[in-house]
Amino acid sequence: MEPENPPMQDVDSIITAAGGAAHVARLAGVGSEAVRKWRQSGAIPAKHWPLFLSFPGVNMAMLTALAPRQKSTTLRPKPLQAQRAATPPAPSTHHGKDRMTQRTTPNHLRANLHQPAGATAALILADGTVLWGRGFGAYTPAEGGQVAELCFCTAMSGYQETLTDPSFTGQIITFTFPHIGNTGTNAEDHEASHMLAAGMVVKDMVTEPSSWRNEGGAEGDLRAWLTRQGKPGIAGLDTRFITRLLRDHGPQSAVIAYPAEGQVDVKSALERVRLWEGLEGADLGSQAARPARSWDKGRWEGFIMPKAPTGTPRRVVALDFGAKDNILRSLVSAGCAVQVLPGTASFEDIMAQAPEGVFLSNGPGDPAATGVKVVPVLKKLLESAIPLFGICLGHQLLAHALGGKTTKMARGHHGANQPVKDLATGRVEITSQNHGFAVDEASLPADVVVTHRSLFDGTNEGIASPRHKAFSVQYHPEASPGPTDSQHLFQRFVANIDAARAARANTQTSPNT
Ligand SMILES: NC(=O)CC[C@H](N)C(=O)O
Fold first, then answer.
1. ∠ CA 289-293-299 to the nearest 5 degrees?
2. What's the mean pLDDT in 393-410?
3. Which end of the chain has the least Cβ crowding within 10 Å, N or C?
């Protein structure tokens, strides 16, 4: 469907519709000088669009149709961006490479509904930013595929593990590293049976795979893989612009539209994006679990990890909220026999396995929402003094069970280079992370110890309850992708189980001695 030309608007009429300059300045928290500059430049900064959209009579089409009529210091795009904006958006295709550059200006002040020639897909954000590029992977309806939270991931490698990490359910991943897809795909690098993220955004178009680990020749190409996963991707966008936007203005809902018929329905896509309720309050963790199963595969051969302790394998129940396979492998290699149960398993079902330790997995969505069902079970497990270990969502759920709270972060952590300090030892580990919620340390009861903090933003990265033999970390010691500095935490869990075993053995023998 051809998008209608939006009605011509000017800033003055929009400000009048919104109740006048003084009223708007007060609500937007800006001075009258700023409003004057908006009028002068003929554009309203996108960060104020949500405010304008709350006034009757103002809609997204009006705001996106504003065309700056005069450049001002505050609103002028940088020279390179201006130059790009002036270049027609024709993709270049040399040497078999498809490297369309984001030729519409990467400046949301110039967001527009009009699809440039050569663009086959768009990334549409809730603030009205529309970025045109070239689609790949699976086609979507003209009004876009799954609406999701747009995030950026800074990992330079491991895109296949990232894309199949179930914690990314409900998110579109912008890769900040420009060359994604070069090494193709294979059957081993999945972290779950399939991709759950809603889509992917890259700067350079994926090229042909060049790696001995690519499987199936052309079938291993990330584009073919993505099509088989039924998910869309978009290339040619200025991923640094997206990253700065999310960094400065917080998480945003977005959608990728890549219609087979070519024409994107931007207006409908925008409406869908703006109606989506977001990840806060979404219990995705309860839905992400796979069926109950026992797991016996350890880490890959050649992988260096601390020597597994001897003794009968420890019976561990792993509560699955969307677990990454490498966590299960790490537990096995650390000396555990793992039974995976859905995260919503009852206390009785868990105890029927006679667990010596219970592991709480990573997973998508809002931990507070998943906690409504799960926390009562975790409280019973804590009372039973079974050693507990949680990772990421599991960490957040443990915090809730211990009486704490979690909050949505202004800037989520997604990447493989995040420094974390162990407060007990002072050691710093570089970690793999993927979370948009964080444990609020101020909410934790006095007997819960804060064990780790992020050196990027000081947010909580680990807690322990010595009284309950429970500990957890916000980051991913199993890596995949990322560094393995924190692999030793699996040994810590096993040591806790062994200590509880020894204590049980003592109580059983002591009456006779
Ligand atoms: N990796 C995870 O387990 C993520 C936990 C949670 N969904 C968050 O975004 O914070």
1. 90
2. 98
3. C
Q: Distance from the CA of 13 to the center of ligand 1, in angstroms? A: 44
Query: Can you name the residues that pair with 140 across neighbouring β-strands?
Result: 259
Q: Does 157 count as an annotated binding residue?
A: no
Ligand 1 in reach of 167 Cβ (< 6 A): yes
Query: Which atom from ligand 1 is nearest to the alpha carbon of 406?
Result: 10
Question: Is the pLDDT at 46 greater than 90, yes or no?
Answer: no
Cβ–ligand 1 contact at 393 (below 6 Å): yes
Nearest atom in ligand 1 to 285's CA: 7
How many CB atoms within 10 Å of residue 78? Answer: 11
Residue whose entry in the numeric block shows the structure tokens 């519409």: 104
Q: Could you give the CA distance from residue 319 to residue 245 in angstroms, rounded to a whole number?
A: 36
Strand partners, 255: 124
pLDDT value at residue 324: 96
- Annotated binding residue 393: yes
What SS3 string covers 230-255? CCEEEECCCHHHHHHHHHHHCCEEEE
Spell out the CATH class of 285-506: alpha beta
Residue keyed to tokens 């199949």: 164
**Residue whose CA lies nearest to ligand 1 atom number 4:** 435
The pLDDT tens digits for 169-183 are 999 999 999 999 999
Architecture of the structural domain at 11-64: Orthogonal Bundle (1.10)
pLDDT digits (tens, 9 = 90+) for 287-327: 988 889 989 888 776 666 666 677 899 999 999 999 999 99
Buried b or exposed e, range 216-247, using 16+ CB within 10 angstroms: eeeebbbbbbbbebebbbbbbbbbebbbebbe
Longest dimension (CA), the chain: 92
Predicted pLDDT of residue 303? 60
Q: Which of 48, 153, 392, 461 is catalytic?
A: 392
Q: What percent of the chain has pLDDT over 70?
A: 84
Element (DSSP H or E) covering residue 415: strand 405-422
Distance 187 CA to ligand 1 centre (A): 24
Check if the beta carbon of residue 432 is closer than 8 Å to that of residue 480: yes
Rounded to the nearest angstrom, the distance between the alpha carbon of 279 and the centre of ligand 1 is: 10
Residue 31 annotated as part of some ligand binding site: no
CATH number among 1.10.10.60, 3.20.20.150, 3.50.30.20, 3.40.50.970, domain 79-275: 3.50.30.20
Evaluate whether 425 touches 467 at the Cβ level (below 8 Å): no
Predicted-assembly ipTM surpassing the 0.95 threshold: yes
The SS3 assignment for 256 reads strand
Each residue's pLDDT tens digit, 90-99: 333 233 333 3
Domain locations along the chain: 11-64, 79-275, 285-506
- Kindly give, in sequence order, each residue whose CB lies less than 8 Å from that of residue 380, ignoring residues fewer than 6 positions away: 347
Give the residue from 256, 222, 273 showing the smallest Cα distance to 140. 256
